[in-house]
Design brief:
The complex is a heterotrimer of chains A (324), B (516) and C (307).
Chain A (H helix, E strand, L loop, with lengths): L3 H19 L4 H6 L2 E6 L5 H17 L2 E6 L6 H13 L4 E4 L8 H9 L4 E4 L5 H7 L5 E4 L2 H16 L3 E7 L5 H15 L4 E8 L4 H14 L5 E4 L2 H13 L7 E6 L2 H9 L4 E4 L2 H16 L7 E3 L3 E4 L3 H7 L2
Parallel strand pairs in A: 1-2, 1-3, 3-4, 4-5, 5-11, 6-7, 6-8, 8-9, 9-10
Antiparallel strand pairs in A: 10-12
Chain B lengths: L5 E10 L2 E11 L4 E5 L6 H9 L6 E6 L2 E2 L5 H6 L2 E4 L11 H5 L6 E2 L2 E2 L1 H14 L15 H12 L8 E5 L7 H16 L3 E5 L3 H7 L2 E6 L2 E7 L5 H8 L18 E10 L3 E9 L3 E6 L5 H8 L7 E6 L2 E3 L4 H6 L2 E4 L3 H5 L6 H6 L3 H4 L10 H12 L15 H13 L5 E5 L7 H16 L3 E5 L3 H7 L2 E6 L2 E7 L5 H8 L11 H11 L1
Parallel strand pairs in B: 3-10, 3-11, 6-9, 9-10, 15-20, 15-21, 18-19, 19-20
Antiparallel strand pairs in B: 1-2, 1-4, 4-5, 7-8, 11-12, 13-14, 13-16, 16-17, 21-22
Chain C lengths: L1 H21 L6 H26 L7 H17 L4 H25 L4 H20 L4 E2 L3 H8 L1 E2 L2 E2 H19 L1 H11 L1 H6 L4 H27 L1 E2 L7 H11 L11 H20 L4 H23 L4
Antiparallel strand pairs in C: 1-4, 2-3
The chains are: A alpha/beta (324), B alpha/beta (516), C mainly alpha (307).
Chain lengths: 324, 516, 307
């Protein structure tokens, strides 16, 4: 066992030096600067990687130190909660968080409140009633209106199909505020059109490989599906592969959400029809800007809505620069 | 006379506490089939392992074609053209016949196996040996004798030709027709000039296939002779060991009531019609060759294995064991043949091993073990059996003799009255052996009954009140201590004698029932 | 053996000293309590895992049993049952799932890896099925106290963890069942021939693992104020890691609960410290993986017979 010690120390030392490099290099100045924490759902999704880039840009510009932490897996609320508890210990001035669970995270936010750390909620709203019960109030909410995004996708579907389509839907993880809002928006938008039939709707849990499998199965059961709405681009990209595997490329319209780089490439290539663009880079930027305002004692609006856009082949060039 | 293919002279080998080979000589001529005979433990396997490079000899000389050679490992043995076919086959079941034959020596170009050449060479080799086996068939689809042929082909597959081939009980699992095929192959190989060492327990085969015979006993040469000059009974008496029989500290105990009775126990393919009884104060010996079913009897009457047929009585009451725990409850304790695999939990300390079968008693009704309760239970046992260890010592650190005493201690510590000892003195030094015999005397004096399975005939003859002899899953014969001789027991174990019973097991059982 | 347990403890202490030197936030009462609280769930699952691994088995289904018993608890509470009813029901669910593992392994003579891999999927699927994939959220304060209450300054989960370890340690060292766990793991054949009723004790060993998984689910549900069918994913790996870091041999028969607790604490301290230092989650995974492999490497080297 004695032999484990040097190894442990080396690992820690390596980790620390790497983390210092990333945190800005000038560790002397870092102690003086206020620290803003950004807790993400995960870092292995392009959406959150973009958000982090925007936040880092704003932090460098405004002279604050940004600490970014994320759970290893997007759905791991308990790990996210531990991160929040640990960050509170380090004396962060403001906590920006994209909750992995809109109710589950509240226990952690209560601890932040008790430690007088103001909270800015990004991307996923807290459950309003549960938050009120717990006495938690975010300084502001920064995000896109997912319901509105879903409606945007729905209206687009109605337009391009001429009001007549057989639709398959790939849902996100059930019970997630984001997933539910996008779905509701889409369903509401197509509900008024008698020609728009939703023939299947199944969860693919935000994941690309599940998007592939679930849509492949869906296509087996309903070979006449001509339009797909996926509540995220990763699932949409999976569905595109399934369509290609079935030899139906070009025969099925795919509408996604998030306008990831891969999705835009697919739109340019014509394998995907459209995607609702969110601007995570803008969200990250706004989060840090708002955090600085909180530190300076300025007041914030209850909601800061970041725009949404429909990216199609015609607009995809413009959309790309918007998220950089 | 031509220069011998192989000469082993004055080979000595000892293991801690035991001299396995004490100056053994063996000479093989090219083209002869040389039979190697001896009881279990006579030294046949050790001698062949030295030849194969598995063991290093302590002293002695090995010459091939008159030139001294040094066999430091299996690789050297192969290079010298020595091939050994073991009882346990070494084939990979999922690979094809051809792949198995050239396993590890496949013809290849730049690390890529040359399949065409591999297959062609396998076909040539198999037809050379005169066996019709599909080289592409996976080995697991072949019958046992065919696998054995593949094993032989594998042994002969090298570029270099084999000059010495050792076959260790190759026919033990074969039917008589399959034996014919094998013997045909052996004769063809011998005609080509290969010197063959043939180890067997089947004396009837010896005369069919062998030219000369060497008999070993207790690690020494007894005789080497042309088979034409010997008789079966001559061979048996050469194998039998006649010294020592009086050196065992047997103290007869008064024989009491019947403790255990088996009636017609059977398990398909393993045991058939096993009937015997053990009475208080009695040591019942059980002889037989390896694989004769002795250990299966031990396991059947201790609940370790289920039986298909037959009945078991403890003190006249019918019992049925679903697990060893049931047998233990009836006061039956088993000292298994392989103490490392079945006797000890090597990671636990001595006290906990000894207390393991007594856990219920050591612990209160709530299952809570009081501190030091196990040590308190074990301490007198450790003292009585003179186990050189503390209660807290891990059993894996002990010597073989002390480990064996710990396993004995598990049963001595409890209220077992019926002891089943499977090879109780195997791998222990002479001092520990005597202590184990003395323990057996104490147990019988206290009214216990013992079934002692052993491969050492002197020990069986020296300690038993009666001896049962197993042959191919049956009780072949039963002798009283007075009537038993090494020759008679050995003949029965080899299956030569018919059921020469001093008293038939069935009759004993009936008689006891009337008594009880 | 004692030297090694001592060694793991030294490892933990040195780790703490290093973190103390690196960050001022580490050695504070509130942070140490945080660590204890954050460790409690993994430590409790690992306690049951230790029984299983000591017996020579493995239980991959613990994470899914956490989810299943958690949603059983959530549904019972939402159905209006008091915690006094709901808690026994969920514990029964966990114990039942664990005992099923044990029965299949023993009676079916199947490898524990396969059986618990199957149960991992079955229990997860059952949790998703009965909740239709949705989390069950919002419980009474009286129930949530299991995670939020403090006795003195000690958080309730830490107290529960301590109780679990005290009881489990007693069972393992002072009862016949504990002896049998070691004996079965050390040499199952010898244990059977010594009269240990394997048919009885193997299912019981896996039931213990189910029980601790359920207790962990209780804390997790109270802590998150939500029972999620996707909860507990990868818990099996954390629990195995804690057990193995704590010096329990994957071959069975050797190890202690104290070691497992230290192993869980090493993982908890490491995660906490890396968070405090602001190390990225990617790098955290590398460090934790390194510690697991390193600990087992040391274990193996120490066990190798000296030449």
């Amino acid at each position: 066992m004695m032999r484990i010690l040097p190894g442990l120390v080396c690992l820690l030392a390596a980790a620390t030096s790497l983390s210092c490099n990333r945190a800005g290099g000038d560790s002397n100045a870092a102690t003086a600067r206020p620290v803003v924490a950004l807790v993400l759902k995960t870092l292995n999704h392009p959406f959150f990687v973009d958000m982090r880039r925007g936040a880092q840009e704003a932090a460098d510009r405004l002279g604050v130190t940004l600490q970014v932490q994320a759970a290893e897996r997007e759905v791991d609320v308990e790990k996210q909660m531990q991160i929040v508890e640990n960050l509170i210990q380090t004396g962060v001035r403001v906590l920006c968080i994209t909750p992995s669970g809109s109710r589950e995270i509240l226990s952690a936010l209560v601890k932040a409140k008790n430690a007088n750390v103001p909270v800015i909620v990004v991307d996923t709203r807290l459950d309003a009633k549960a938050a009120a019960d717990a006495g938690v109030r975010g300084e502001t909410f920064i995000g896109s209106d997912n319901y509105e995004g879903g409606r945007l996708a729905g209206r687009h579907a109605v337009t391009v199909t001429g009001g007549k389509a057989r639709i398959g839907i790939l849902e996100g993880i059930a019970g997630h505020e984001t997933a539910d809002s996008r779905l509701r928006g889409f369903r509401d938008a197509v509900a008024g059109e008698p020609g728009m039939a939703i023939v299947a709707s199944q969860p693919a849990n935000w994941e690309r490989d599940q998007g592939f499998n679930v849509f492949q199965n869906m296509l087996q059961a309903h070979p006449n599906i001509d339009t797909v709405f996926a509540a995220s681009d990763l699932m949409a990209l999976g569905a595109i592969e399934a369509i290609a595997a079935a030899g139906k490329t070009g025969k099925i319209r795919v509408i996604g959400f998030d306008a990831l780089d891969d999705a835009k490439r697919a739109i340019d290539a014509g394998t995907m029809d459209a995607s609702v663009a969110q601007f995570p880079y803008e969200m990250g930027k706004a989060a840090v800007e708002s955090a600085v305002k909180v530190i300076n004692g300025e007041s914030l609006p209850a909601d800061i809505m970041v725009k949404l856009e429909m990216v199609t082949k015609a607009t995809s060039g413009k959309a790309t620069e918007g998220s950089r | 006379m031509e220069r011998p293919a192989l000469t082993m002279a004055g080979i000595r080998k000892s293991f801690p506490g035991v001299v396995a080979l004490d100056g053994v000589d063996l000479t093989l001529q090219a083209g002869e089939v040389h039979v190697l005979l001896g009881e279990n433990g006579a030294g046949k396997s050790t001698l062949m392992k030295i030849l194969a490079g598995a063991y290093r000899r302590d002293a002695g000389e090995i010459l091939m074609q008159g030139r001294p050679v040094d066999i430091a490992g299996p690789r050297d043995a192969r290079a010298l053209g020595i091939r050994v076919i073991h009882q346990e086959l070494s084939l990979v079941p999922s690979l094809s016949v051809a792949e198995n034959i050239f396993l590890g020596a496949a013809p290849s170009r730049f690390g890529v196996i040359d399949w065409a050449s591999l297959r062609a060479r396998a076909i040539r080799l198999l037809s050379d040996l005169g066996v019709a086996i599909d080289p592409d068939a996976p080995v697991n689809r072949l019958a046992l004798p065919q696998r054995q042929m593949v094993e032989i082909a594998k042994a002969l597959a090298d570029q270099q030709s084999a000059s010495v081939l050792v076959m260790d009980e190759p026919t033990s699992a074969l039917t008589s027709r399959e034996v014919d095929v094998l013997f045909g192959l052996i004769e063809r190989l011998a005609k080509r000039g290969v010197a063959i060492v043939y180890i067997t327990h089947r004396l009837d085969e010896v005369y069919r296939i062998g030219h000369r015979v060497t008999v070993l006993r207790d690690g020494r040469n007894v005789s080497t002779a042309m088979l034409g000059d010997t008789s079966v009974s001559g061979l048996v008496s050469m194998m039998a060991n006649r010294d020592l029989a009086d050196h065992y500290p047997k103290q007869p105990a008064p024989i009491g009531n019947e403790l255990l009775r088996a009636e017609g126990l059977g398990r398909a393919g393993v045991l058939e019609d096993i009937s015997f009884s053990i009475r208080a104060g009695e040591i019942v010996g059980m002889a037989g060759l390896m694989g004769a079913g002795r250990t299966d009897v031990a396991r059947a009457i201790t609940g370790a294995d289920r039986v298909d047929r037959g009945r078991l009585f403890v003190r006249g009451r019918a019992v049925s064991f679903r697990a060893p725990a049931d047998a233990i409850r009836e006061g039956i304790g088993l000292l298994p043949e392989d103490r490392k695999a079945h006797g000890l939990v090597a990671l636990l300390n001595v006290a906990r091993n000894i207390a393991l079968p007594q856990s219920r008693k050591v612990a209160g009704p709530a299952g809570i073990v009081p501190r030091r309760a196990e040590a308190a239970l074990a301490a007198p046992v450790i003292r009585d059996l003179r186990i050189k260890a503390t209660p807290d010592q891990q059993t894996r650190q002990l010597s073989g003799g002390n480990q064996q005493k710990v396993v004995l201690g598990k049963w001595v510590a409890g209220d077992a009255r019926i002891f089943v000892f499977d090879e109780p003195t195997r791998g222990v030094d002479i001092g520990a052996k005597v202590e184990i015999y003395q323990l057996m005397n104490r147990l019988t004096a206290a009214g216990a009954g013992i079934l002692m399975i052993s491969s050492e005939l002197p020990e069986l003859l020296g300690m038993s009140d009666r001896i049962l002899v197993m042959h191919r899953g049956r009780i072949q014969a039963e002798f009283t201590a007075a009537a038993a001789t090494q020759e008679r027991v050995l003949s029965a174990a080899l299956g030569l004698a018919g059921p020469v019973l001093s008293e038939s097991p069935a009759r004993t059982a009936r008689a006891n029932r009337v008594e009880g | 053996m004692k030297a090694r347990r001592f060694g793991t403890l030294i490892g933990l202490v040195v780790l703490c000293l290093v973190l103390w030197a690196l960050t001022p936030f580490f050695l504070t009462v509130s942070n140490l309590l945080n660590i204890a609280e954050q460790t409690s769930i993994n430590a409790i699952v690992a306690a049951g895992m230790t029984f299983v691994i000591l017996s020579g088995g493995i239980d991959l289904s613990v994470g899914s049993i956490v989810a299943l018993s958690g949603v059983v608890l959530g549904l019972s509470l939402h159905a209006g049952y008091s915690p006094a009813v709901a808690l026994p029901v969920m514990i029964a669910a966990g114990v039942l799932a664990g005992a099923t593992n044990g029965l299949l392994i023993d009676r079916g003579r199947l490898p524990p890896f396969i059986v618990t891999l199957g149960m991992m999927s079955i229990a997860r699927g059952a949790a998703l099925l009965i909740t239709e994939g949705r989390p069950i959220s919002g419980f009474e304060e009286s129930f949530r106290a299991l995670a939020t209450a403090r006795v003195g300054f000690v958080p309730a989960p830490v107290l529960i963890m301590a109780t679990v370890y005290l009881v489990a340690h007693f069972v393992l060292t002072r009862t016949t069942f504990g002896r049998y766990v070691y004996a079965i793991g050390g040499n199952e054949d010898a244990a059977r021939l010594s009269g240990v009723r394997i048919h009885l004790h193997k299912p019981a060993i896996y039931a213990v693992s189910g029980l601790t998984s359920a207790l962990a689910a209780m804390i997790l549900t109270a802590r998150l104020n939500s029972a999620q069918p996707i909860a507990g994913t990868m818990y099996e790996l954390d629990a195995i890691a804690a057990t193995v870091i704590g010096g329990t041999s994957l071959m069975g028969g050797e190890g202690t609960l104290a070691g497992t607790l230290i192993g869980a604490l090493i993982m908890g301290v490491l995660r906490n410290g890396l968070n405090l230092l602001g190390v990225s989650s990617f790098l955290q995974q590398i460090v934790i993986g390194g510690v697991i492999v390193g600990a087992v490497l040391v274990d193996t080297v120490l066990k190798r017979p000296r030449t």
